[in-house]
Amino acid sequence: MNNRKSARVLTMALMAALAVPLTYGVLQLPTPGQADAPAHSNVSAKYIEAGAELAGSENLVTGVLLNFRALDTFGEVLVIFTAWLAVAAVAGGAREAGQDSIPPSPIVDYVIRLLGPFIAIFAVFVIVNGHVLPGGGFQGGVVLGAMLIMLSLVLGTGVVEGVFSDRVWIWLRAAGVLVFAMVALLGLPAAGFLFGLGQAPALRQALMMALELAIGVGGGAVLAGLYFSIAGTHRS
Amino acid sequence: MSPTDVLDLVLLALLLTCAIGIARLKDLAAAAILFSAYSFILCLVWAHRGAPDVAMTEAAVGAGITTVLFLTVISRVGRREK
Fold this sequence. Notes:
The complex is a heterodimer. By secondary structure, chain A is mostly helical. Chain A has 2 domains: 1-42; 58-231, no CATH class. Chain A is built from 10 helices and no strands. Chain B is mainly alpha-helical. Chain B has one domain (3-77). Helices cover 84% and strands 0% of the residues of chain B. Chain B has helices spanning 3-24, 28-48, 52-77. In chain B, helix 1 runs antiparallel to helix 2 and helix 2 packs antiparallel against helix 3. Chain B is flat. The N and C termini of chain B lie far apart (45 Å).
């Protein structure tokens, strides 16, 4: 009992010791929107001025994510794919045959069946309009993944997962990683550096669209795959 | 203080309340639901701060998918924290 109490005091002391420098650091941050803050005084002026032209995307956020910082995004795409691989390796083998989740109430069932198509259209809309509107491949992809999971809750995992064979699902999940790697390598001959898009505007837009679609499809399939691995029942 | 600052403060206070609640709850399913509420509030903060794309991701992933994943795992491993 005494031991536990001292552990508690130690935890409190450590947290207080951590809170002081963190609070100090946050107080040092420049006011949001301050024009001469370091975040705004280096490259961002250039991005805002010429970003739309350089990156082939009117939406600057998309331009930064898919072009100026494409390597970072490539890393993120790899991370979620690896996360699915790990979950599938750990949980995929432990599926029990014949046992699916408890059927939801009729209200949930009806609402999900009603909303499903609209959510699917919204996901595609967000993916293909990523270069002009907020959102883009990943945002659309997570909406797509959420829709697949919702449908799995109502119809059972087997039905949704059974739409494609296991082989097709793996290619869909790997789509983000593969397309990113291809576009990155294409940049070498086209522009001399990874993720260079070349000069032709049509080519740039096509490559950006390929990246958006790949993250959308890959992200959605990976997120749905996480759910299938954890909740799914094995198809015989 | 402008009204939008007040809104920010209210949302942040709610976030803090949710976070403390999540840490203190022993019922994992309740904690997962509260975590979903936390994500929705955070989604409002992002939207209010002018980041609609982050808000969209937060709503779909934070409030939706992770909650489903948490609840699915909880249904397999047991609901009470030991």
